[in-house]
Design goal:
Length: 304
């Protein structure tokens, strides 16, 4: 066959991963903001003796590293989108970035909890006014970062496999920063006006628990994609309903998996008494499912 006759059956496996995703630029902006505020909070926490403030600064520093991983995942996926080594493109690099970010969130939560427990056992004197000022500044910066990254966060919230998990990871990191800043302010105010210095490390523990919960949620959603978990029951039912409208057809094997943000592929085996060409069955699939790289295998049903 001549090459031009084969073109209709050939296609790219980049699935749009060669395009710059909206979250990439926003992530780089937040990295610069987070790194700058990190230096201010760490210096202030050491100078003013606030564990909550120091923990917030260290937290922001670790998150700057995590955000760097998210940024690298965006760039790597885009630059290697047409690399033939990746059978289904680089869409899962995005998910891998989110998974790595979730692991780092869990590590940071454990460090926060440990340091806070140490301060409960061995309290230190706190310069409340200065610490509160820096914590408020940190909250404003973190709130701005949440706004920058959270513009599209609620889209497709009912279909977790359609998330940009890399962006979600970055979003949760800055949300964690905002939370620890808020808890630091609360603890410092209680300590200043009621003398409850122990509230400072206690809020560090509370923050660690909440951050750990976010981490586990993100780990669950990203690991299911990395392990090629079957698509949703709704998607499976829609495919079966579309292909089995003709009573002669029966879907006997169906695999649906996510290959990137909002991108699902499917492999379908059909048994029919009057089999048609695969293109016939592909055209019957619901367009709202946005399936890509569909492989259909058709078998003739024979009476025994």
């Amino acid at each position: 066959m001549e090459e031009n006759h084969l073109k209709r059956w050939k296609h790219s496996h980049s699935f749009g991963q060669d395009e710059r995703r909206p979250g990439e630029t926003r992530t780089f902006i937040v990295i610069a903001i987070t790194a700058s505020m990190m230096l201010v909070e760490i210096a202030a926490g050491i100078a003013y003796g606030s564990m909550a403030l120091l923990a917030d600064g260290l937290h922001m520093g670790s998150h700057a590293v995590a955000l760097g991983i998210n940024a690298f995942a965006y760039v790597y996926a885009r630059r290697h989108a047409h690399n033939q080594r990746y059978s289904f493109g680089t869409g899962k690099v995005n998910t891998l970035g989110g998974y790595t970010g979730a692991i780092l969130l869990a590590v940071f939560a454990a460090i926060m909890a440990w340091e806070s427990i140490l301060r409960l056992i061995t309290p230190v004197e706190i310069a409340f006014n200065q610490a509160i000022f820096v914590a408020v500044l940190g909250l404003l910066v973190n709130g701005g970062s949440v706004f920058i990254l959270g513009v599209d966060h609620d889209h497709d919230h009912e279909h977790d496999h359609h998330h940009d998990h890399n962006l979600k990871s970055a979003y949760l990191h800055v949300m964690a920063d905002a939370l620890t800043s808020l808890l630091a302010i609360f603890a410092l105010l209680i300590g200043k006006y009621f003398g409850m210095i122990w509230m400072d490390p206690l809020m560090g523990i509370v923050g660690a628990i909440l951050v750990a919960r976010w981490s586990f949620g993100l780990l669950k959603s990203t690991s299911s994609i990395l392990l090629d978990e079957q698509g949703s029951e709704e998607t499976e039912a829609a495919i079966r309903e579309a292909l089995e409208q003709d009573s002669d057809n029966k879907v006997v094997d169906l695999h649906i998996w996510t290959v990137g943000p909002g991108i699902q592929s499917a492999v379908i085996s059909i048994v029919s008494r009057s089999p048609m060409k695969p293109d016939h069955y592909k055209s019957a699939l619901p367009t709202h499912l946005h399936l890509q790289h569909i492989s259909i295998e058709v078998h003739q049903y024979e009476e025994s």
